[in-house]
């Protein structure tokens, strides 16, 4: 069994849902303060390891009845425990084969250095790699109009850890077919208008071009519709996976069979709830925007 076969077997054993390989050359344009090879200059490959965010962890948020369990199963435990253990096991697999492997936690790249450079020409510690860039460079994801990562299998439902290794591994091809169709349901559904419908920018990573809407993250920080403040730094973007904008994206992707992970029943069973920045309900307006209409008794009508 060669190294790739052993890594694939270990990934299956550890419940890794997504795995991609990016050679060092794909990071040549990344600034040293966000470049994984600043951490391991002799490294040759970045391995991105992803686990799904279970759709059920978003159910309580979609219904507006339970928020804390998403924060555990879809966010903190997923990153701090489930993925961390899998990443450690994958690192051990590489070490057992005689290769050095550096496990990297997804700290936000917005965190400023907390030390001084140890010698001229080296970036100051700590170097925190740009995981969004790396997930695209590893052929796993693209960046959606809302600015979140989409994979062909799970849409926006995944989180990542990274390994930098001196093993030279076959590169994963970049995604060719676009997942995001630019529907802008994310922008339409945001009660705070945080995602612009008219202003966008083009992001290019390793030749792959993606159109991303301009996002007012200050508005996202006060969102009461499922967004979660960045748990590491106030300078970081909030976690919007459970926010109404992204849940509407999930609905669109599933309803149009645009991702591989399929379910017996649709995600949105009831009209979407929505609160403005003051916590005042905007349900009727959002129901109309998202295709449902409330009757006077609060039930969905046609």
Secondary structure topology:
Elements (H helix, E strand, L loop, with lengths): L2 H11 L4 E6 L21 E8 L6 H5 L4 H29 L4 E4 L26 H7 L4 E2 L5 E2 L7 E8 L19 H5 L5 E11 L2 E8 L1 H4 L23 H12 L27 H7 L3 E2 L5 E2 L1
Antiparallel strand pairs: 1-2, 2-6, 3-6, 4-5, 7-8, 9-10
Helix pairs in contact: 1-3
Largest sheet: 4 strands, antiparallel
Q: What structural class do the secondary elements suggest? A: alpha+beta
* Helix proportion range: 25-40%
- Encode the helix/strand succession as letters: HEEHHEHEEEHEEHHHEE
* Tally of alpha and pi helices: 8
Summed up:
The protein is an alpha+beta fold.
Could you walk me through the main structural features you see in this protein, from its secondary elements to its overall organization?
- With 302 residues, this protein is an alpha+beta fold.
- Helix content is 26%, strand content 18%.
- The chain is built from eight helices and ten strands.
- It has helices at 3-13, 59-63, 68-96, 131-137, 185-189, 217-220, 244-255, 283-289, and strands at 18-23, 45-52, 101-104, 142-143, 149-150, 158-165, 195-205, 208-215, 293-294, 300-301.
- The strands form four sheets. Strands 1-2-6-3 form a four-stranded antiparallel beta sheet, sandwiched between helices. The chain has a two-stranded antiparallel ribbon with strand order 4-5. Strands 7-8 form a two-stranded antiparallel sheet.
- The longest helix is centred in the N-terminal third of the chain and has 29 residues, at 68-96.
């Amino acid at each position: 069994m060669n190294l790739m076969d052993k890594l694939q077997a270990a990934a299956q054993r550890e419940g890794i849902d997504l795995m991609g390989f990016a050679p060092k050359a794909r990071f040549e344009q990344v600034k040293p303060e966000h470049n994984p090879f600043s951490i391991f200059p002799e490294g040759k490959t970045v391995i991105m390891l992803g686990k799904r965010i279970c759709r059920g962890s978003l159910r309580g948020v979609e219904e507006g009845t339970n928020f804390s369990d998403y924060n555990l199963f879809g966010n903190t435990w997923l990153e701090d425990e489930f993925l961390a253990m899998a990443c450690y096991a994958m690192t051990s697999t590489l070490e057992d084969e005689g290769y050095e492997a550096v496990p990297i936690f997804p700290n936000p790249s917005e965190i400023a250095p907390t030390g001084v450079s140890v010698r001229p020409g080296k970036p100051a510690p700590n170097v925190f790699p740009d995981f969004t860039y790396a997930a695209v460079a590893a052929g796993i994801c693209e960046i959606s109009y809302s600015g979140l990562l989409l994979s062909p299998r799970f849409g926006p439902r995944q989180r990542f850890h990274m390994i930098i290794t001196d093993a030279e591994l076959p590169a994963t091809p970049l995604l060719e077919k676009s997942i995001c169709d630019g529907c802008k349901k994310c922008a339409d559904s945001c009660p705070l208008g945080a995602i612009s419908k008219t202003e966008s920018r083009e992001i290019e990573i390793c030749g792959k071009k993606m159109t991303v809407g301009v996002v007012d993250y200050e508005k996202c920080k006060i969102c009461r519709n499922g967004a979660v403040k960045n748990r590491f730094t106030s300078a970081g973007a909030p976690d919007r996976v459970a926010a109404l904008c992204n849940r509407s994206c999930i609905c669109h992707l599933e309803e149009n069979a645009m991702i591989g992970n399929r379910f017996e029943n649709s995600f949105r069973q009831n009209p979407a709830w929505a609160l403005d920045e003051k916590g005042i309900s905007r349900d009727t307006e959002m129901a109309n925007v998202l295709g449902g209409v409330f009757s006077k008794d609060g039930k969905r009508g046609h």
